[in-house]
Amino acid sequence: MKNFQELLKKAKSSTRKNVVLVGAEDLEALKAISMAYEEGFVNPVLVGNKETIAKNLESIEQDFDIIEAEDPKEAAEKGVRLVSSGAADLLMKGKIKTSELLKAVLNKEWGLRTGSLLSHVAAIETPYLERLLLVSDGGMIINPDLTQKIDIINNAVKVAKNLEIDIPKVAILAAVEVVNPDMPETIDASILSQMNKRGQIKDCIIDGPLALDNAISEEAAKIKNIKSDVAGKADILIVPDIHSGNILGKSAVYISGGNVAGMIVGAKAPVVVVSRSDNSQSKLVALALGVLNA
Fold it and tell me: Could you tell me how far CA 230 lies from the centroid of its own chain?
């Protein structure tokens, strides 16, 4: 897919999914879920303070089901139970802390555990690229080890396939494109690339270490004489740690004028997690991303 419009178009062509908005007092999230309902790809279920939600619904001229919850903890439990029971297909974060929502998601009795690592995948659209990029993990795992990076890659590859990328090209990012013993992330990148070549990581093509320019720009890769099936053509960027992923995502928005939509994957259902500063349009695209992966 080239841009978010294509992503939205595909979501509109899919069957409606039942989406639980946990902490539905968030007006911008309500606007997004209302737009998704009007576009025909979600059925909203709202969980939170009934009085506040009803007032916000009135302001946007909508009328959706509301499940009363006295506090965020109760809202998270009720929302997660709806998904774990099969009554809903995915979760969306509203006016609730991410940590509080994920605590419910990971509940051993009624949560959404699968045994897989939970990781964050962000789709990035910028004016300078003619394709969407997936970036992981800039929102969950602070400093992933090699084993966790394998799970992060596998989770991102599943998302890419749901975006019609049959064999995703995965770039393992570092500051340089050569292995340097003083830079552990370059060693991990080399190992992951070799594991892919030996069939230990499947359904994708991995190369690394690659600096960001070499990963996404064919011209930069050509100038540096990097010959690779991934260099300049990456679909997925795997960052060394949460800091670099967070910075990369926000710089795409605030420096290059792009857009970002993200979610947490690895649970029984996607968890659409958006920033409080995101507008309703960004949250709409994040919903579409979640629906395509539900």
Answer: 21
Give just the sign of the alpha carbon dihedral 109, 110, 116, 118: negative
Report how many helices (DSSP H) and strands (DSSP E) the chain contains, helices first.
Answer: 11, 11
27-39 helix and 280-292 helix, angle to the nearest 10 degrees: 50
CA pair distance 48, 187, nearest whole angstrom? 47
pLDDT tens figures, 36-51: 999 999 999 999 999 9
- Which H or E element spans position 64? none
260 belongs to a structural domain = no
Q: Where are the alpha helices (DSSP H) in 27-145?
A: 27-39, 50-59, 72-84, 98-105
Residues 102 and 26 placed together within one structural domain of the fold: yes
Which CATH number characterizes residue 235's domain?
Answer: 3.40.718.10
pTM for the full model?
Answer: 0.93
- Looking at the structure of the chain, the number of domains it has is 2
CA distance 114 to 209: 30
Q: Which residues contact 113 (CB under 8 A, 6 or more apart)?
A: 105, 106, 107, 267, 268
- How many whole angstroms separate alpha carbon 45 and alpha carbon 86? 13
Parts of the chain with a pLDDT under 70 = 276-279
Domain that holds residue 127: 119-254
**Are both 124 and 110 inside the same structural domain?**
no
Q: 250 Cβ partners below 8 Å, 6+ apart? A: 260
The pLDDT of residue 144: 97
